[in-house]
Every structure is written in structure tokens, then in C-alpha cells.
Amino acid sequence: MNWNTIKEKLYNEDGALRDIVADTDKMTLEKWELLCDFLQRSYDLRIFCDGEEMEERFEYSLAKKAFFDKDHFYYVSFDVCRITFHLYLSFGDQHLDGNQHLEFDFFPNEVDALDKHNAIFDFMTQLSDVLQISIKMTYENCHDRYLLKVTPTTV
């Protein structure tokens, strides 16, 4: 598939974000711990609480704290090939029940070349392998329909 087709199908600039989500609600606490370790090892992370950058490492204990904190909004920001991703740890009144929702988002207009698309695909593949679940890219808040999906390459 050529870049123009990929751009049109996946990254058309419709004003909406793109979400990267788990293809399941089974994001257990163990999977969150794996995710925290993977992100900390692989990316230069910036952690925010209520929009203010924190001076902490993104460790599982911080993620778990954010899940239970109903008074503050937490997210993690990092770059994949000059595309800014946000991982949300707070979802309003949704509380941790062992299946906290996994959602990353990014602006599709930042994906302006094939190498950036390939970097997103590689990120999704690595994430899928680390968590051993399928990962999909969707339009913002349209998680029932996916634009791109990867499955774990290892068992």
C-alpha cells in the first residue's frame, strides 16, 4: 500500500484524534505492570497530574495510585518518531476493578510520512507482544470499529 492510500485511510485530517486501545477490557493489574515497565524502558516519559508535569518516574506504583485517585487527572506523554502520544490513567468516575481501560491517543496530522506510520505500527506490535493482547487503532471514542489491528506475534 502506498503512503497516499495509508494517509487517506488512517490519518485523514478530520479534526479527531486517533486512539490506540486494547482489543479487550482485560487490562489486568499484571498487564498494567508490564506496560509500565515497557514504557519506562523504551521511551522518555513525561507524567502529568492535572496538567502539571510531575518529577516522578512512571512506575507501576504511580499508575496504580492514579487509578484510585478520584480527585486528580493523570496522563503520561511520550514521543514515537516525533508523534506525541498520551496514555490516560484517569477516567473520571471509572474506578479500578482489575480491568482499567487502556487508551493512548495522538493527532493524525502529526503522521505525515511513511516512516511515522511504520513507527506507530511497530509501537502497536511491541505493545501487543508485551501485553499478549490485540491492539487496535480507532477513530476517537469509536472503539467498536478499528482502522488497524495487530495481534501478538509470540505466544
Q: Concise description?
A:
The protein contains four helices and eight strands; from the N terminus they run αβαββαβββαββ. With 155 residues, it is α+β, with helices and mostly antiparallel strands. It has one domain.
What is this structure's SSE topology?
Layout: H1 3-10, E1 18-22, H2 29-42, E2 46-49, E3 52-54, H3 60-68, E4 74-80, E5 83-88, E6 103-106, H4 114-131, E7 135-139, E8 148-150
**How many discrete domains?**
1
Question: How far do the termini sit from each other?
Answer: 28 Å
Biggest sheet character: 8 strands, antiparallel
Alpha-carbon Rg, integer: 15 Å
* Shape by Cα distribution: globular
**Sheet with the most strands: spatial strand order:** 3-2-4-5-6-1-7-8
As residue ranges, the low-confidence spans are: none
Please report the total strand number as a whole number: 8
Order of helices and strands: HEHEEHEEEHEE
The average pLDDT value, as a whole number, equals 88
Structural class of the helix and strand makeup?
alpha+beta
β-strand amount: 15-25%
Helix content: 25-40%
The helix tally amounts to 4
